[in-house]
Amino acid sequence: MTPIVSQCHTKFISQAIEQLRSFCQVNLQSSWLYQESDLIITDVVATDLSHWQPVELNAKEHIVWTGGKKVLWLVQRLVVPQDLQGYPLTGLSLRLALVWWADSAEIYVNGELVLEGDLFDCSPRVLVSQGVTPGEEFIVALRLESPGHCDGALVRSLLVYESTVDNNPDPGFVADELAVMQLYLEKFTPEKLDVLATMVAEVTNRRGTEDTEEEKGLVKSFLSLRQNLIQSDILAPLLKGGWGDQKSKIFLLGHAHLDLAWLWPVSETWNAAQNTFESVLKLQADFPELIFCHSTPALYAWIEEHRPDLFQAIQAQVAAGRWEVVGGMWVEPELNLIAGESIVRQLLYGQRYIQEKFGQLSTIVWVPDSFGFCATLPQFFANAGIEYFVTQKLRWNDTTKFDYGAFWWRSPDGSEVFSLMSAPIGESIDPVKMASSALEWQSQTGLSESLWLPGVGDHGGGPTRDMLETAQRWQKSPVFPDLEFTTAEKYLQQISKGVRSQESGVRSSDSPSFPTWNDELYLEFHRGCYTTHADQKRWNRRCENLLYQAELFATLATVSCGVTYPKAEIEAAWKQVLFQQFHDILPGSSINQVYTDALTQWQQVEQVGTKILQESLFAIASHITPSEPPKPDSLPIFIFNSLNWQRSEVVSVALPTPEEWQIYDTSGKQLVSQSSEPSTLLFFAPEIPPVGYRIFWLSPPSPSSPSSPPSLP
């Protein structure tokens, strides 16, 4: 437990960090002027701002306006001061850090559109100027459109002045370095927090007294503080790249989670995918170190068909080792509701596509956002060439914290897969968050090499230029872990290497001992996904069963009758089902438009599956020679059993005429039957063999002779 004295010093250090940030950051939330009518930017720039209304902040200090696609314009005139609390601003770059909840956003500086965003690309740092001059003016305007399903909000607006000179960092950078140092000491040597607090106090209390010119004295104070910290013995292990006794490193892997549907229809996803992939390729041209990963072979298949130029560029980056295809499944599916056969198909079609188009199988199942995972998954993975499982979703648990960062996940049959509870997705390059995550990871696993996944997500996006530039800047900080881009596969191979001998099952004594998890991975959240939009669950199971039967009897018809097997039709139908099993479609968490579109897909599968099944059964029946009928004009009835065990069931038969028809077995015994709806007959069909059939006879009544009483089977 951290000593009480350390808690006091922690508070003092935190206050000093906030003071440092105040020298180069300005909160703009209360300074905006607004209009709730839609305008064009030329009118906004030319308008008399005295006619605009000042905003009002709610209790959370958010600017809120009405939902339902309503437009809000925010504007303010910024004038660069000479200094902030004595810290000179000349030559510093200027960024506007924003966080919004809006369906769409446009940011203008001096009438020029500089950035666009949406509900998920919602926390950018907008570059206003590469280097400011005191007295310089900027008119910043925001056009925000509220979501259709709820109110909109501007959550944060912060003006940030930054130094781009490596040996002359700005106070905000020093503040973040100090925050990282504080996290390090709290974790490993809390008793030394008082030493750090004393060093900070000495410098901050001496601020401005070393020079008659206050500005120069302030700059010297910041540099002196940083230099003293760097030279301090208490931080020596950290400055040498070690956290505790180990060399520390944070591996980076660009990522862009892209829901195939959620608060938007599938049709919008294709555009989001193109924009995301094109953005990544452009950034890779400027940042050779950038490695990016993405899942979902279904998405790559669409890009291949509709944007072959883009697909070829992706293939080239995959071959160069700068783009990693991490999806062993066709999509990132819901994995509690779907049948075992669907799990197999997700893996089969996913792996087959990756091998065909990119030359190798994926060793990773990457499902960061699926809503929980059934206990048998490792068995499926082991049979599909999957070595690693990655998610972060159990971080969302609302009751029980999942304590394992890395673990062996074992299914009931004994199959195991090395599993990673990754860092959160959709994050930027935030040094304090990254350091906190790295320390949590080391606490959980004993490993000092962690993985961070920078990139805008949910609606795609991926890494941004600002993220990559910030990473380069922090790579040069002496108090921060080394940063290096890698692939997920390389990282997982590295941390699991030596953990256990795959041949002997014996753990190495000099490597971390990862725990074994022998249960499902239950998400304590999103519980309504098992009941919401029940029609989707019904359609899914109906189509799963239908395609199983269609494929089974199509195979038997091919083998026994020589008919052409409908491979392409079955595969296409299965891929439609697999797509609708995406983790925001099947669980019922999407907008209504998604389910209107999904209904068409389910109906197409039903049509195709029914056609294949009927044609296959007719082909098989046409090659069977039945025994002699019990009566003239009798019609053979073929009852097929698609399951792997014998069944006896009540079946219904459509009658050719509304007469009193009767059912006989092949020995001539009449069976009990019952008229149901007009022209429908029910009867009990006993002992239908597994994956087989029995023949019955449908006979019209004979008026010339009395019928014998029917017998029970």
Describe the 3D structure:
With 713 residues, this protein is α+β, with helices and mostly antiparallel strands. The protein folds into five domains: 4-20 and 170-239, no CATH class; 24-162, Galactose-binding domain-like (Jelly Rolls), CATH 2.60.120; 250-327 and 362-499, 7-stranded beta/alpha barrel, CATH 3.20.110; 529-622, Up-down Bundle (Substrate Binding Domain Of Dnak, Chain:A, Domain 2); 635-699, Golgi alpha-mannosidase II (Immunoglobulin-like), CATH 2.60.40.1180. The protein has 17 helices and 33 strands. A hairpin with a 5-residue loop joins strand 22 (406-410) and strand 23 (416-421). Helix 1 (4-22) packs antiparallel against helix 3 (171-188) and helix 1 (4-22) packs parallel to helix 4.
Task: Give the SSE map.
Blueprint: H1 4-22, E1 25-27, E2 33-35, H2 41-46, E3 53-54, E4 63-65, E5 71-79, E6 83-84, E7 87-88, E8 93-101, E9 104-109, E10 112-118, E11 125-129, E12 137-145, E13 152-162, H3 171-188, H4 193-205, H5 214-231, H6 236-239, E14 242-243, E15 246-247, E16 249-252, E17 254-255, H7 266-286, E18 292-294, H8 297-306, H9 308-319, E19 323-325, H10 340-358, E20 364-366, H11 377-382, E21 388-391, E22 406-410, E23 416-421, H12 431-445, E24 449-452, H13 465-475, E25 482-485, H14 488-496, E26 516-517, H15 534-561, H16 567-580, H17 592-622, E27 635-641, E28 647-654, E29 662-664, E30 670-671, E31 673-675, E32 680-688, E33 692-699
